[in-house]
Amino acid sequence: MSTLDATRAELGLVILYLNKAEARDKICRAIQYGSKFLSDGQPGTAQNVDKSTSLARKVFRLFKFVNDLHALISPAPQGTPLPLVLLGKSKNALLSTFLFLDQIVWLGRSGIYKNKERAEQIGRISLFCWMGSSICATLVELGELGRLSASMKKLEKELKGSDKYQVFKAVMDTVVAVGLLQLAPKKVTPRVTGGFGFVSSLISCYQLLPSPPKSKTS
C-alpha cells in the first residue's frame, strides 16, 4: 500500500469516526470537562467554554433517551443472573430518565422553558438519575467480571476489547455526578470533577474508534 493510499485510508477512518453523533458528543464532553479542570470553578474563559460546551452537548442528546428505553423493554441475554438483569434494567431506566429530563434542562437554559427554578430542580433530579445509572453500571460490570473469572481464557479474551474500561469509566462518572451535585464539595472540587470527567470522556472516545482495515498480504 502506497503512502497516499495509507493516508486516504486513515482519513477515511477519521471521517467515519467524526460522522458518529456519539463520537462528536464525547469530544465535546472532553472539551467541557477539560475546561472545568482548568477553570477550577473560577470565572474566566475556561469556565465560559465549560458552560457553552455543556449547553451545546444537550442538543446532541435530544431524543437519545429512546436508546435506553428500547434496551429497558428488550429481553436480557439468556443465562444472565437475575441480579445482573435487574441492575442492568435499573441502569437503563435511570439513564433514560436522565436523558429525558436533560431535554427539559436544555429548554430552560435556552430560554424556551421560562420557569428557571423548576428547570434547575429538574436538572438536579436528572443528575441524581445519572449518578444512579453510573453506580448500577459499575455493579453490572463488576458482576460480569466475576462471572467471567471462572474461565480465565474467556476473561482474557473479553478484556482485550473496550469492556475492560467500563468499570473505571462508570466509577469516574459516579465521581463526576457527585461533583456536579456538590454532595462533597470539599473533596470533589470542580478541578477533581473536571479531571475525572476528562479521563472518562477520553475512554469513551477511545471506545468509539473504528477498527483499522486489515492490510492485504499477497
Task: Briefly say what this structure is.
75% of the residues lie in helices and 0% in strands.
The secondary structure category is mainly alpha
Percent range for helical residues?
over 70%
Number of helices: 9
What is the strand tally?
0
* Unreliably modeled segments: none
Rg result: 19 Å
- Mean of the pLDDT scores? 86
Report the β-strand fraction as a percent range.
under 5%
Oligomeric status: single chain
Q: Note the main sheet.
A: none
Please provide the ordered H/E string of secondary-structure elements. HHHHHHHHH
Distance between the termini: 11 Å
Overall shape: globular
Tell me about this structure.
By secondary structure, this protein is an all-alpha fold. It has helices spanning 3-18, 21-39, 45-60, 65-73, 82-109, 116-148, 152-159, 166-181, 190-207. The longest helix is centred in the middle third of the chain and has 33 residues, at 116-148. It is globular. The mean pLDDT is 86.
